[in-house]
Amino acid sequence: MAGELLRTGGQVLADTLETVRDEASEKFDGVVDYFNERKAQAEETTKILQQNQEAYQKACSRSYACQEMLKREYVDFCSQVAELDEKFFSTYRLLCDFADVEYEETMTEQQDWKLPSQQLQVWSPADSVLLKAVGTGLLSGATAVGLATALGTASTGTAISSLSGAAYLSSLLACMGGGSLAAGGLGIAGGVAALSAVVAVPAAAFALYKADEAVQKNYEQALLERRKVREYCAEVESRWQKGMLIRRAVRSLTMNMYSFGQFFRDMLNMGAFAVSLKKNSRYMPLLNDAAITLAGYTQLNVLDKDDYNPAFEENLRQLNLKAEKCRQEFYNFFLSLSTQEQSLLEAGRQEEFTLKLEQAKADLSGRFGDRWKRLDNKSQNFLVSGRAIFYQLAAARQMIDYSSVCVVVSKAVEGELKRRLFSDFCRYMEERLPLAEHGSQWPSGLCQYKDGKGYVLRASEQLTLGSIAYLCHFKPDSRLSEAARNRNLHWLSQYGRDRLFRNLASEEEIWRLLWEIGRFADSVASNYRNPAAHSAFFGYQKAVEFFAYVLEGEKSLPWIVQQFRK
Fold it and tell me: Residue 564 — left, alpha, or beta (φ > 0 → left; ψ -120 to 50 → alpha)?
């Protein structure tokens, strides 16, 4: 009986164990099926993340390429504008000074251009963990958006979602067992125990729940990032189209500006010949219109309120029409000239005036040395433009009247002497004897008495290059009384010692220098500047003589400037 019971109990235990094994097997098969489904979802997540990465990187490259192309176009445009201002417009101003005509002061004022690429900023990667990871090179393998893969990694470091078959099951069981034995876990045996024991089912269910939560979270995150990446790609594409529109506009503007700039350069090269042919009354208005038109290209707006300016194309078309009108009016002027005059202008077109200016400035600054900086900017411009035009006209020598060259260089001489012997002298006197109260004690060359106004300064225009000879007492003024002459001599001597000259102590040295300055001014005025000096043809040899006297002589302008204190 006892044996029967033992056999029956043993059978029941065996049946029970068999039932447990069958149930465990069914549960394990279900778990494996479940994990296979999760593995497939994890693989899909990885695929989506890789697609996101590729799409984002492609969009970033496209955005970067767009900005770089815009930068290059804008740099080319700005470089050309800088060259226009440095060479063409500065040359134009000098030529206007030479021809004694006014130029447009504000023509080269630039609007505050914004770099076109600054209007195409990409969507900030900081708004997306995925985009940030891609941007810093962190997106690789199965790691993305800061999360582990749904099933973690195997003990070898390989992503479980990348395994299959026995390797996948072994890694899964080890993971369920708390990791490999080497890592301090229970290994595969622990995983089997967790799945085989009925009491372990709640723990297994909890682990499955956590795994499922991670897989689902990663999958949803990947879908969210895909939506963001697609939105970003669409935005980049829109910006690309807009960027290419702006790029084409800037390139078109640059090309049209360059084309008209070459025409303007030819006009500058011919300008000296036109002035020397006494055609400046007709030529300079044409040059002014061309200069204003060229400046218009530098101020044309491609952008409007940080976006493409829809009026740009029409504005450019209108400006091109003005440019074409300038060309046509110049050609009409050119055709109205005689054959000889046309030949002269054509010869001038071949001479690069900007190079002549550089040559002239180098020559003059070398002659003056450190004294060059003492000259007023206007005087420097007169000297440089006159010398450069002399170089350019020298190609035609016997066919050109050089009187205009001598006139403009004489302006520099007159300006430097007037600045020191009139303007500075007046300030010196005002510091000691204010004109309103002591005008009668001032030198007569600086002021005059007017009824109802008392003593007033003479107009600067009254003090010409020829009158400086009287002011320096190189020529006596018979209209003055002896008392007036003595008063003038006294103050001029005081001014020479206190303010005008360098390192002079004796009155004799002061009068010697003043006499040399008066003699120089009188000679320049009488022999080269005054209309009587130009009654006959002012040829090349006369111009050579003039430059030798003014710039190279023993007591020439550089020597005189050296004597001044500042």
Answer: beta
Longest dimension (CA), the chain: 169
DSSP string spanning 151-169? T-B-TTS-BGGG--HHHHH
Q: Where are the alpha helices (DSSP H) in 336-434?
A: 339-349, 353-368, 377-393, 403-418, 424-432
Q: Which amino acid is present at 281?
A: S
| CA 468/CA 474 separation, integer angstroms | 9
List, for residues 105-125, the tens digit of each pLDDT value: 444 333 333 333 333 333 233
Whose CA is closest to 174, among 160, 188, 184, 163?
Answer: 188
pLDDT digits (tens, 9 = 90+) for 462-514: 788 888 888 888 887 778 888 888 888 889 989 998 888 877 668 888 889 99
Do 234 and 60 form a contact (C-beta atoms < 8 A)?
Answer: no
CA dist 133 and 146 (Å) reads: 8
Q: Look up residue 322 and give its two tokens.
A: 């003005």
Tokens describing residue 272: 């000296």
Nearest C-alpha neighbor of 151 from the set 50, 27, 38, 48: 38
DSSP 442: S
Alpha carbon of 14 to those of 7, 20, 176, 342, 480: distances in Å? Answer: 10, 10, 28, 124, 149
Q: Check if the beta carbon of residue 527 is closer than 8 Å to that of residue 407.
A: no
Residues 282 and 410: beta-carbon distance below 8 Å: no
